[in-house]
Specification:
The protein is built from three helices and six strands, in the order H-E-H-E-H-E-E-E-E. It is an alpha+beta fold and 104 residues long. Helix 1 packs across helix 3. The longest helix is centred in the first third of the chain and has 15 residues. It starts with a helix and ends in a 12-residue tail after the last strand. One of the early assembly proteins it binds 23S rRNA. One of the proteins that surrounds the polypeptide exit tunnel on the outside of the ribosome. Forms the main docking site for trigger factor binding to the ribosome.
Length: 104
């Protein structure tokens, strides 16, 4: 039973951190030991910190989050709304890095 509970905690880490968010701005943040991830909208800062530390074996010094509202766009003359997403800027301890191009 305890093994099953531990398994669900590991699975939760993958449910919290969805994907790296790679743009020009986030690439510039990597110079300051920061990595940006798309995370679950229900994820809290302590959950994000625990998930990143467990998945990538690094020490996290700070987590900043932001909720990005989906834009309204048009496609073939009809309006649609992109889905909302939550981003987390994770600051790492000095000397540590995460290579987001390799995947989890």
């Amino acid at each position: 039973m305890a093994k099953q509970a531990a398994k669900s905690v590991e699975d939760r880490h993958y449910d919290v951190v969805l994907a790296p968010h790679i743009t020009e701005k986030t690439t510039l943040l990597s110079e300051h030991n920061a990595v940006v991830f798309k995370v679950a909208t229900s994820a809290t800062k302590p959950e994000i910190k625990a998930a990143v530390e467990a998945l990538f074996s690094v020490t996290v010094t700070g987590v900043n989050t932001m909720l990005v509202k989906g834009k309204t766009k048009k496609w073939k003359g009809k309006d649609y709304t992109r889905s909302d997403m939550k981003k987390a800027i994770v600051t790492l301890a000095a000397g540590q890095t995460i290579d987001v191009t390799t995947g989890i």
